[in-house]
Write a structure and sequence with these properties.
heterotetramer; A alpha/beta (501); B mainly alpha (341); C alpha/beta (316); D mainly alpha (340); A: 501 residues; alpha/beta; Rossmann fold; 6-stranded mixed β-sheet; 17 helices; 22 strands; disordered C terminus; D: 340 residues; mainly alpha; ABC transporter involved in vitamin B12 uptake, BtuC; 14 helices; 76% helix; globular; binds adenosine-5'-triphosphate; binds magnesium ion
Chain lengths: 501, 341, 316, 340
């Protein structure tokens, strides 16, 4: 198949960081090319180079065999390259139509914008993804998943020859992922080249034809997916083999440490009751939009509720302030790390101690040395990849930012941990570290709620699984009888699994 | 079988009513109607058509400046130099007219737009290219441009008898029963509306203010958008400078002093998000008209002059809060509908 | 610091005005410069804040103290707020007088009033009365509500209106245009609307009277609403010639600046004492007599009408 | 060099620019006027800008948490008015001061309530309360002034410390600056302010009482405005509703020239201190040589812009140099290595 884009010995240096350091890659039409590597390996940077957001420090980009230099995303779009970026890149206050056509609005002969045609085109494109939202809906009124789908529609709208998807499935539900696969296959058949970035191996094996592995910004290897195994890829990515994905452990379930009774918030979640025990990992599974995040936020006190009660230990959490939950030993790792998790412009140290400032302070003044040692200990535990603990978090890769959030909450010395999608966007190595870590904590008597949209993770880690659907708890499974199909069925609602089945 | 995420918003498909109520301009319109009615009860003369025209006349300059302010705020900026720009340009063209009374008005109109636009361009370039935060840049040029009025005028005023009759009459000659000032205001409003809603360049202002990174990803140049916004704001300020000195037949050093915050207030009342990316021309029109009515109403219903400032402040507060509340309630109701649908 | 300047010093006198960029004070500066040129051993420092605030004037007084001027003549934005600063200057041995708009008595020696407050108030009422045949509603459009001199005149206008010959005239409102064109214009229009039978407006402030004239013209009320006030001939020339206003009055700001420098000079040189009854020679103006409360009055306001305003318009 | 080091450098460089400016202002003024570098003049000049300088301290915190308060000048007018009413009602000086502080505090609290309860942007709210507060002063005073404050009151705003020549307001400012500096840069609270300014959601999700801190800061800002009213009243020994006109933008200017990011989350007390004295002495020096006020306005305006633009330019230049020097040779050596 014809090579469309070729990257030759590409280097991209940021002050102090070599994000790309001699990467060679060949993208062919009619092929799905997986780009894999640990957090911070340089994948997103590569995307930004190919889309003209960043310019290369050295090296060459070839399109159709001739060398080009993209000075702006315009040049790259003109060359037929479109991307779905990892960071949110939408205009929340603008309509869907505008989000899709921004940068390449359609115009009437008079030079004025042709809204009618743009709307029709939008409906058409949405139709291809079986999306049925009015084109003049504001994007801020869409769910995370819907936004992602709009991003895909956007890439389609410019009839790109190369579409790059940077972790496109990270916030999609299973059904939507399936739809995405369909679409990718259709595009491939039509001769489009697809670059697919993902940390999920099942996905890579399901959809990709070829792969390129990066490590520390360097090119490690490439080839056909059919010729390799997961272990091979992991070894290439991490430089060493990985033992196991989920830790083996014998749960030691103790007393009730958190009791939620008839909790409800109108229109978001209804009648939620469950108990969480010491030493237990309680998995929450559901499709995106099932209301799990909102439930957890309400338990933690950063979101209101309309009724019901939350009792931690012996104390009822009445005040809608996270401070009270934290006092009772609850820690909450939120799902949206950029918005809710990290303070981007502050250093790793400052982020890590933010929720436990009291503990590292004396007379209201944080002690620099205590802060550093706390942070260093946690950074080591999560093998944080940073050039210095004083580095600002904005300069870390997504996965490493997530590690900082985890560190922040462990520093509070919690007894109850609520983890909302803790491994989203995290590479396998770290994922395994987080998993073993969850296991360790449970063994030490922590009570843990694990919210995840990854079925394997929920099944592999949890002692008990609760399934949410449209704001209600619809099923409960023990570790022993939690079968993938049944759990998924309950979440989708195809089989009417009853609670306590 | 539809995905839950798709069902969630089927309520949005929305009746016409929903779509109308969702527009926060309606709230403001209702507030304005109530206000006018209340004032009218107190002072029936206030409701006479001639009176409305005179309020309109009085509001046009604020409205035009606020349109420029809107463009800048849309890009998540702010232009505090508009009033100084107005004063400088007004003084410059008035002095030109004084020295060369024969120069035709059309030249002065062009000159005022050009002078204003260049002052705006200076703001824009420094903000967009020099990365100076807009509020700092325009706080700076607010005093720089104001000082320049003093420098070119030497501290003196240009008065009515030094202006040519054409210059003095420019803002008020009547056409189809309306003064030229109003026509120019309407024309400007129309053009800005067309620009913001029906041209690529206009939509890009929204994009840049809403999410600059994302704008970069789709090849929208934030630099160009910001410069455009400031140039537009400056050009309008320049034109209003000419209109102002012509209307009051006097160019002074402290012309329109303190007006910059009034334009911001009008924009905010009109529902423009100070964070950028959201705001509309109809909203701004209503915001400016609202302020204009408040100012004029207070003088008409015989409120003690000492009460006027407090009442103005209070009414502005109420309008802003009511506007925000309505907006939030509508949002809540809509998403609620969406969820239960 | 030694008391008073030495005889062979060039006297440095600060002329501190309400704000720079105001034609009235630019004219006063010209007068001050003229006086300095005549006297020979005087240097005038013309200063004022960029907006008419007391705080800005205090800052300048302190800078004048720091640079060791010999005298300061102030047209104040706030008669009370300037007192502490003026007293600081006095303690530093500086001769402080006020002109045009007074500093309260304990902050200055002599105040040079452009004219007698009572005279101004009465003559303005008399002027409007003649224009409207002693009959009908009148209103006052002033500068800012905190301007002392305006308030004093307005008080005298009220007093005057109690006289029997004005029995058929009614003062219906006092409004404030803050010496801003747009605000004054809006207030004027507000008056027309609130009082359909309004016959006359007195606007004892230069910005206000010009803006009111413009408003009368724009609303087509020439002849129906009469206007008088205190206005610069340059600002009002057009309107007086157009018949919007039959006449306006003002003292000569050039003479005001001129006399202020002469008074300060003679006080500094010890030629006269600052006391009631003192007579101070002021060049071409002649002698100025210091009255009760150490207030000296420059003269009567000069009335500008269609016959003479054009010739003054080019001067101030 | 890491990104954080770079940030630190920019930051330090910002203050360095201000130091250079301040030194430049001193050298310039000293060479232009023989009166500038006299101790008594340098000290006395501060009386005129200390109220605004003191206001800049809480304003700095408000801007760091990502809010703004445009109503401060109105609050000063209102507090001074209330203080005057108290005086007329026969209150003693301490009671008058309490009344001024109380009024300021209430005004600040009202701002806080409206901003936080109704979630309206603070710039919008305080543009409204700016008119409201000053308007109430007009309602109360009309065209009257309050005079007749006891002379002892002058000891606060015009006084000196003990037998020295050191102005009381300057002393108060220095004490307050130290307190604000320690709180901002050393304490847990300060850390929280930066976090809130950078990302209020993340701060809330980390258990920081974001709204309570913001409310406290608005109230504090009002309280300090009340105190500034005491200083100003004591300095001019009278009250009119138009005192402190247009100070709101001057205070904001002091803060942003000091390097505090208007978007929140960034800034330091050192920058604000430097900007206070740079602007204060620049204006004083220029007025000593009788530069017209409008021209002083032009110069300070240009300074404001220049102070922002210059460090950026330096940084760009030096970055280019860093990349040139450190990275390019490495590429070259590698290139030659593969060639060989
Ligand atoms: N704008 C920037 N300035 C400085 N360093 C940067 C910048 N962008 C990325 N980096 C650094 O470049 C390296 C590669 O980052 P990149 O985002 O490409 O990683 P990634 O492979 O996409 O990781 P993840 O899987 O976590 O998304 C990281 O070390 C990151 O800290
Ligand atoms: N933009 C929105 N407008 C209105 N309601 C929304 C919006 N986004 C989410 N919701 C409501 O919140 C509920 C939960 O949404 P969310 O997608 O966060 O769920 P979740 O189960 O936490 O999924 P995940 O954690 O996988 O993202 C939805 O069912 C919906 O009712
Ligand atoms: Mg990435
Ligand atoms: Mg969620």
């Amino acid at each position: 198949m014809a090579e469309v884009v070729r990257l030759d010995d590409a280097r991209k240096f940021f002050p102090g960081v070599k994000a790309l350091d001699g990467v060679t890659m060949s993208i062919r039409s009619g092929e799905v090319h997986a780009l894999i590597g640990e957090n911070g390996a340089g994948k997103s940077t590569l995307v930004k180079v190919l889309t003209g957001v960043h310019s290369l420090t050295s090296g060459t980009v070839y399109v159709d065999g001739s060398s080009v230099s993209f000075r702006s995303p315009h040049d790259s779009q003109a060359a037929g390259i479109a991307a779905i970026h990892q960071e949110a890149s939408m205009f929340p206050n603008l309509t869907i139509v505008e989000n899709i056509f921004m940068g390449h609005h359609l115009r009437k002969p008079s030079g004025l914008l042709d809204w009618t045609t743009m709307k029709t085109r939008t409906s058409e494109l949405c139709g291809r993804l079986s999306l049925k939202i009015p084109p003049d809906t504001l994007v801020r009124d869409l769910s995370v998943a819907q936004r992602h789908q709009i991003e895909i529609v956007k890439a389609l709208s410019i009839d790109a020859r190369v579409i790059i998807m940077d972790e496109p499935t990270a916030s999609l539900s299973l059904k939507e992922i399936k739809e995405l696969y369909e679409l990718v296959r259709k595009l491939r058949e039509a001769g489009t080249a697809i670059v697919f970035i993902s940390h999920k191996f099942e996905e890579i094996f399901e959809i990709a034809d070829t792969y390129t592995v990066l490590r520390d910004g360097r090119f490690v290897g490439d080839g056909r997916v059919a010729d390799v195994t997961t272990d091979d890829l992991v070894r290439m990515m991490a430089g060493a083999a990985l033992d196991r994905l989920f830790p083996e452990r014998t749960p030691n379930i103790g007393d009730i440490s958190l009791r939620v009774q008839s909790l409800r918030q109108a229109g978001v979640f209804e009648d939620i009751s469950f108990e969480l025990h010491k030493g237990e990992v309680l998995g929450f599974f559901g499709l995106v939009g099932a209301g799990r995040s909102e439930l957890m936020q309400s338990i933690f006190g950063v979101r209101g509720r309309d009724g019901g009660s939350v009792i931690a230990g012996a104390v009822e959490l009445k005040a809608l302030r996270p401070q009270q939950a934290m006092k009772e030993g609850i820690a909450f790792v939120p799902e949206d790390r950029q918005e809710q998790g990290v303070v981007l412009d502050m250093s790793i140290v400052e982020n890590t101690t933010l929720a436990s400032l009291k503990a590292v302070s004396r007379f209201g003044f944080p002690n620099r040395r205590t802060e550093l040692s706390t942070t260093a200990r946690l950074a080591k535990r999560f093998s944080l990849r940073a050039s210095s603990l004083l580095q600002v978090v904005a300069a870390l890769s997504g996965g490493n930012q997530q590690k900082v959030v985890l560190s922040k909450w462990l520093a509070t010395d919690p007894r109850i941990l609520i983890l909302d999608e803790p491994t989203r966007g995290i590479d396998v190595g770290t994922k395994a570290a987080v998993h073993s870590f969850i296991g360790e904590l449970a063994d030490q008597g922590y009570a843990i709620i694990l919210v995840s949209s990854e079925l394997h993770e929920v099944l592999g880690m949890s002692d008990r699984v609760l399934v949410m659907k449209e704001g209600r708890l619809v099923a409960e499974f023990d570790r022993d009888n939690a079968e993938a199909e049944q759990v998924l069925g309950a979440a989708i609602g195809a089989t009417t699994a009853q609670r306590g089945a | 079988m539809e995905g839950i995420s798709n069902m969630k918003h089927s309520g949005f498909q929305g009746t016409l009513l929903h779509r109308i109520i969702a527009r926060r301009e309606i709230t403001l319109l209702v507030i304005i109607v109530l206000l006018v009615a209340a004032v009218g009860i107190r002072a029936p003369r206030f409701l006479q058509p001639g009176r409305q025209l005179s309020i309109l006349n009085d509001t046009i300059i604020l409205l035009m400046l606020t349109l420029g302010q809107l463009a800048v705020i849309l890009t998540a900026g702010i232009d505090l130099s508009v009033a100084s720009n107005l004063a400088f340009t007004g003084m410059a063209v008035a002095m030109w007219n004084m020295m060369m009374p024969g120069v035709p008005m059309i030249v002065l109109v062009g000159a005022s737009i050009l002078i204003g636009a260049s002052l705006g361009a200076f703001n824009g370039v420094m903000v967009a290219v020099g990365k100076v935060p807009p509020i700092i840049m325009t706080l700076g040029t607010m005093s720089v441009y104001r000082g320049m009025v003093f420098l070119i005028s030497g501290g003196a005023w240009v008065s009515a008898h030094q202006m040519s009759p054409a210059f003095r009459g420019f803002a008020r000659f009547s056409f189809l029963g309306l003064p030229s000032l109003v026509w120019i205001g309407v024309l400007t409003t129309g053009l800005v509306y067309l620009f913001l809603n029906h041209t690529k360049g206009g939509r890009e202002l929204y994009a840049v203010g809403d999410n600059e990174t994302a704008a970069g990803f789709v090849g929208v140049s934030a630099t160009r958008a910001k410069i455009k916004a400031f140039v537009l704001s400056g050009a309008i300020a320049g034109l209003t400078g000419l209109l102002w000195v012509s209307r009051y037949a006097s160019a002074q050093n402290d012309t329109a002093i303190g007006f910059e915050l009034e334009t911001v207030a009008a924009a905010v009342i009109g529902g423009v998000s100070i964070m950028g990316g959201s705001g509309s021309v109809p909203g701004v029109v209503l915001g400016a008209v609202f302020l204009g009515i408040v100012k004029n109403a207070l003088t008409v219903i015989g409120v003690s002059p000492f009460w006027q400032m407090a009442i103005q402040g209070g009414v502005i507060l109420i309008a802003i809060v009511a506007n925000t509340l309505m907006d939030r309630r509508n949002q809540a109701r809509l998403s609620m509908n969406g969820v239960s649908a | 610091r030694a008391e008073g300047p030495a005889d062979d010093d060039t006297l440095r006198i600060g002329l501190l005005v309400k704000s720079l960029g105001n034609s009235f004070f630019e004219a006063a500066r010209d007068g001050a410069m003229e006086a300095a040129a005549e006297l020979g051993d005087v240097e005038v420092i013309y200063q004022g804040p960029s907006t008419p605030t007391a705080e800005g004037q205090i800052e300048i007084i302190d800078s004048l103290i720091a640079q060791g001027v010999h005298g300061i003549a102030i047209s104040s934005n706030d008669e009370n707020a300037l007192v502490p600063a003026a007293q600081r200057a006095q303690r530093a041995g500086i001769e402080v007088i006020s002109f045009d708009s007074a500093v309260a008595a304990d902050g200055r020696s002599i105040h040079l009033a452009p004219s007698d407050d009572e005279l101004i108030g009465r003559s303005q009422v008399q002027a409007i009365a003649e224009m409207i045949d002693y009959e009908g509603q009148i209103a006052i459009l002033s500068a800012s509500s905190t301007a002392t001199n305006q308030n004093a005149w307005i008080e005298w206008m009220r007093t005057a209106l109690e006289d029997p010959e004005y029995a058929n005239m009614e003062l219906v409102d006092v409004v404030y245009g803050d010496d801003l064109s747009d605000q004054s214009y809006r207030e004027a229009v507000g008056l027309f609307n609130s009082y359909p039978n309004l016959r006359g407006i007195i606007s004892p402030t230069t910005v206000g009277v010009a803006a009111t004239a413009r408003a009368i013209q724009d609303e087509g009320l020439v002849g129906q609403v009469e206007l008088t006030g205190l206005g610069l001939p340059s600002e009002m020339s057009q309107y007086v010639q157009d018949g919007v206003s039959q006449n306006v009055a003002l003292w000569n700001p050039i003479d005001l600046g001129y006399a202020a420098i002469y008074i300060t000079y003679h006080l500094l040189r010890g030629n006269v004492e600052a006391e009631a009854g003192a007579v101070i020679p002021a060049g071409r103006i002649g002698d100025i007599r210091v009255g009760e409360g150490l207030v000296a009055v420059l003269g009567e306001p000069f009335v500008f009408d269609a016959s003479n305003i054009a010739e003054f318009a080019d001067i101030y | 060099m890491s990104v954080s080091q770079r940030l630190v450098k920019t930051f330090v460089r910002w203050e360095a620019v201000l130091v250079v400016l301040l030194v430049g202002v001193f050298i310039l003024n000293t060479s232009l006027s023989p009166f500038f570098l006299r101790r008594v003049n340098l000290l006395n000049a501060t009386y005129n800008f200390m109220e605004r300088a003191i206001m800049a301290l809480p304003m700095m915190l408000i801007i760091i948490v990502g809010e703004i308060d445009i109503s401060v000048a109105g609050t000063i007018a209102l507090s001074s008015t209330m203080m005057g009413l108290a005086m007329q009602a026969g209150a003693s000086i301490p009671v008058m001061v309490m009344v001024a502080l109380g009024t300021g505090l209430l005004a600040g609290m009202l701002n806080a309530v409206i901003v936080l309860r109704f979630r309206v942007p603070s710039i919008a709210v305080t543009i409204g309360t700016m008119s409201l507060y000053r308007g109430i002063a007009y309602v109360i005073l009309g065209n009257q002034a309050i005079t007749g404050y006891p002379r002892e009151l002058a000891a606060v705003g015009q006084g000196v410390v003990g037998n020295t020549m050191f102005p009381v307001p300057l002393a108060i400012f220095i004490v307050l600056a130290v307190v604000f500096g320690v709180v901002l840069h050393r304490s847990r609270l300060g850390r929280c302010f930066y976090a809130i300014g950078n990302n209020a959601t993340a701060a809330r999700f980390s258990g920081l009482p974001v709204d309570r801190y913001k409310a406290a800061l608005f109230s504090l800002n009002g309280l300090v405005a009340g105190f500034a009213a005491v200083l100003l009243t004591s300095r001019i020994l009278s009250t009119r509703p138009n005192i402190a006109t247009a100070w709101e933008l001057e205070v904001v200017t002091l803060v942003v020239l000091g390097g505090v990011a208007i978007t929140g989350g960034k800034g330091s007390i050192y920058g604000v201190l430097l900007s206070v004295f740079t602007i204060g002495y620049l204006r004083f020096g220029l007025s000593l040589i009788n530069v017209p006020s409008q021209v002083i306005g032009i110069i300070t305006g240009l300074l404001l812009v220049g102070a922002i633009i210059l460090p950026g330019l330096f940084e760009k230049l030096s970055n280019r140099m860093i990349i040139d020097r450190q990275l390019i040779p490495e590429i070259d050596s590698e290139a030659t290595a593969t060639d060989a």
